[in-house]
Amino acid sequence: MLILGLETSCDETGVALFDSSEGLLADALHSQVAMHADYGGVVPELASRDHIRRLIPLTQYALQSAQRKLSDIDAIAFTEGPGLGGALLTGAGLAAGLGLVLRKPLIPVHHLEGHLLSPLMSGERPAPPYVALLVSGGHTQIMLVSGVGQYELLGETIDDAAGEAFDKSASLLGLGYPGGPALSRLAERGNPDRHPLPRPMLRSGDLNFSFSGLKTAVVTLVRQRRSEREHLDEQDKADIAASFQAAVVEVLTAKCLIALKETGAKTLVVAGGVGANASLRYRLRTDTKAIDCKVMFPPPNLCTDNGAMIGHAAALRWEAGIANIRNADDGFDIRPNWPLGG
Ligand code: KG4
Ligand code: ZN
Questions:
Q1: Domain span at residue 68?
Q2: Which terminus, N or C, of the chain has the lesser number of Cβ atoms within 10 Å?
Q3: Which CATH number do you get for residue 78?
Q4: Any ligand 1 atom below 6 A from CB of 279
Q5: Do 75 and 7 belong together in one domain?
Q6: Are 175 and 280 in a shared domain?
Q7: Domain count, the chain
Q8: Which of 13, 31, 166, 304 to mutate to test the pocket of ligand 1 (most atoms within 8 A of CB)?
Q9: For 172-214, how does the pLDDT look when each residue is reduced to its tens digit (9 = 90+)?
Q10: Whole-angstrom Cα distance, residue 27 to residue 7?
Q11: Ligand closest in space to the Cα of 138
C-alpha cells in the first residue's frame, strides 16, 4: 500500500511516499527557517503562503524520485493537527483535492503521533514500550509509547517549549533565529557553573516542565551584566549560554530518568530539534546507561518535522485497523489544538 504523506503544521513543508511493505520511498522537505529568520520567529501567514507554493513541486519531486505516478497512490495522509490553522489547511486542502481526483481515501494524522512512531522507521527500532521525549520549538513532552495508538502523556511543559527557551535566550544574546544551534555552539566555550540558574520544576514530583522562568532568569542576568559593563564580551555570553544549557539539560535528563524508572521501560527515544543538542545527548547517554537503560536518537531528518513520519504513522494505523479513514467527498477538517489521545 502506497501512502502519500503531507506535513504542513508549522514551518516545514514535508511530502513523502511511504510504502507499507517497501518502507520510505521518497522524502521531500522544504524548511522555511531562512524566510522566518528576518522576523525572529514563525509568521503564520507567511508559513501558509509558502506551504501552498511548495506542496505541488515537492509532491512532483517525491513521485519522480520514487519513480511512481500519482495514480499509484493508495491513500493520502496529512497532518490534521495540532499546528498553525492556516498552515494545516494547505496540506489538508491538497490531500482532499488529490483524494477527490484520484478517488482515494484520506488518512488524517496527529502530528505528535508522527513524531512518536518515527523511530520505528529507523534502522535500529525500539521495542515498545518505550519512553519518548519530544523536544522541539513547539513541544516538550514525555510520553509512554506502548504500541500504535497507545500513548500515555506522562508530562509536558506548562509554558514555553524547550526549543522556544533556547531560541529566546539565544535572541537575548544576539544569536539570531532559530538560535538553539548557535547557543549550544557558544556554550561549548563557556563555564556552565558560572551562573547558578534555576532548575525549574526539578523537584516538582511530576514529569512536567516549565521554561519561561529560566528565560526570565537569563533576561535578568543579561541586564545585570550589561549594567556592570557596557558590552557583554564573548566569554560573558558563552558563560551565560553554558549556564542556561546546563539548566535545561539537567531538568530534561532528570525527568526522563524518572519516567524510565516509573514505567519500567528500558528505552528512551528522543525526537525533535533540541534532540540534536550535544550536551543533552551526552548526559542522556551516560545517565541512562547508569540505570541499565538505553537512549536512541533517530537520524536528524526523522527528528525534525517531515512528511515521512506522517505517511509512516498512517501506514501503521492502517495495518493495525485503527486508521481514521475519510472519504474526500465529505470534505476535510483541521484540528489546530488537537490533544494526543483526544
Ligand atoms: O523539531 P524542530 O526542528 O522544529 C519544530 O520546532 O517544529 O525543532 C526546532 C527547535 C528550535 O527551537 C531550535 O532552536 C532547536 O530545535 N534546536 C536546538 C539545537 N538544534 C535545534 N536546540 C538546542 N541545541 C541544538 N543543537
Ligand atoms: Zn514537530
A1: 2-116+303-330
A2: C
A3: 3.30.420.40
A4: no
A5: yes
A6: yes
A7: 2
A8: 166
A9: 999 988 899 999 999 999 999 999 999 999 999 999 999 999 9
A10: 11
A11: 1
